[in-house]
Amino acid sequence: MKAQRAAAPRPPRVRARTTSIAAFVVLAALIPTTASASGTQEIEVELPYVCTLPSGQLPTTVRISAEFPERADAGETFSPSGVTTTVELPAEAVADLTGRGAAQVRAATRLEVGVAQNEATAKATWRGGAEPVALPGSGPLTLVSKGDVPSVAGRGDGDLTFTAGTLAVDLALDAAAGTGSTDPAASRPAATGPDSDSDSLTVGCALAEDAPGQGLLATVRVGADGSPSPGGSPSGPGGASRTPDREARGHGQEERQGDRSPEVLQTPPGAARDRDDVPPCRYDEQHPPTDVSLNAYVTGYANVKKMKGAAYLPPSCLLIEQGIPVDGPPDPEHIIFDTVSWANFHYQGRKETPPFPSTFLSFDFAPVKATMVLEQTGPIRIDSRIKLRLSDFTTVTDTYVRAPLVVHVTDLEVNGTPLDVGPDCRTETSLTSADPDPANHPGDHLVLYGRGEQIIGQEATGYLLLSGGTLSGETTIPAFTGCGTADGEDLDRLLTASVSGPGNHIKQVQGQTCAIAAPVFPTPETPGQCTEDLQPYEIPVAEH
Questions:
Q1: Cβ burial, residue 498 (10 Å; 0-12/13-18/19+)
Q2: For residue range 187-208, what is the model confidence (pLDDT) as tens digits?
Q3: CA 94 – CA 136 distance, rounded (Å)
Q4: What's the pLDDT tens digit per position in 83-113?
Q5: Other CB atoms within 10 A of residue 158 CB
Q6: Which helix (H) or strand (E) covers residue 496, if one does?
Q7: DSSP letters of 96-112?
Q8: Which of 382, 386, 383, 381 is nearest to 328 (CA)?
Q9: For residue 408, what are the β-bridge partners?
Q10: How does DSSP classify residue 267?
Q11: Do 345 and 378 form a contact (C-beta atoms < 8 A)?
Q12: CA nearest 295: which of 254, 223, 344, 258?
């Protein structure tokens, strides 16, 4: 049904995709595939940087690891996988942070990566998020971040190179312990926000002049033999092919560079699924919308560390009630707003995902296929803090999604033989993550984090509730219980041994939301946000 437009004007929708919705979908990873692609190269590069902190410029070690294909065809799009950025700040930096009253930090990294092919160049930003880390009593501070990596395509033959550039480390500084009520309901109207009792600091880092290879990370051969094509250099911003008359490289040639330089895509390759293949995502008489109701599809991948693989969660529907911004803590350099939004999965009237199959190789040889559902044990809470910098009106939004989700296994096959798991095979508790504010958010739940940034006059980057984006985090998969039947085999230990444990990285993608009270339909000039029957227009594509 279509909702009537609200009589009162809708509150300003700060374009800060406040809801890391995709987060919840996390668990799909339960039973992944261990097969790895052939023809890959694993890189691990250690580079010297110089970072600027309040005490001055300090030498810093940065280690970058990832997997790249050894080669690709011209025009073929690929994404580096398993990207990890490890920043080791020296002891002097720790003193700077403790001097600001911090006991632990949460980091987000932004690494600028140059992509070049022949003479053409482009730039990509590799974003990552790190789990909260307690400041050490002595010695360096090590921050390990994982996150979003745009995909790339070379448009001609010739080696495609990736080179590390400037690095920004955004630090949220947390006090030793949170304060306030431990009752989750008590914090709802107050909109405590993601960084209650915290300060923030952005550390800028430049590649040291003596960096080996000038920061070279990897080289991918493009084309049959990696040699340049007769037609010159590939596509990409900032590049140009050589010509005998260099003076002829004027305005006209600069305009053609965009047709040759490497192509950097913010969304990795993959086609969105047909709408007939995804579940409906609409409000109904049992779930009527309000004037702050949104809906969106979420999808993603989750690693299962024990299986050395990842599982795919197909698009799932999320119904969201967007929070009203309230004033945050005073800050002489920013205007701060906090919001608390609430969300639920919606599948056939239940607060769960659709059933999804996943396959992995147990002990590297026995194929195991499981069908699972993620079930909520409580509402999904989305905390966002929006900070408007007064000096240049740049907006930064930090979002934390807290989702209590258990994994329910409905079917299981081992080497093609069905095993009866019974009706109650599930994790003993919700997926769990380290919470940055455990005093105000006790209990077992998954935590996903996303940061969005918008510079005035430019498109937003990162994650914002309204327009979507990627969120990431790590979770512990609890032990399983209730798996098997009274007269059959007890399968709890099999699933627990194969899957349960810590350190499972999650990357979720939320699509553009549809605002039910003020829908935006597609036109020849503008993209749509809602279908005619008020479902989300965008079906997102999962990213590795």
A1: buried
A2: 333 333 444 445 678 899 999 9
A3: 8
A4: 999 999 999 999 989 888 888 888 888 899 9
A5: 25
A6: helix 492-499
A7: HHHTTT-SEEEEEEEEE
A8: 386
A9: 373, 426
A10: S
A11: no
A12: 344
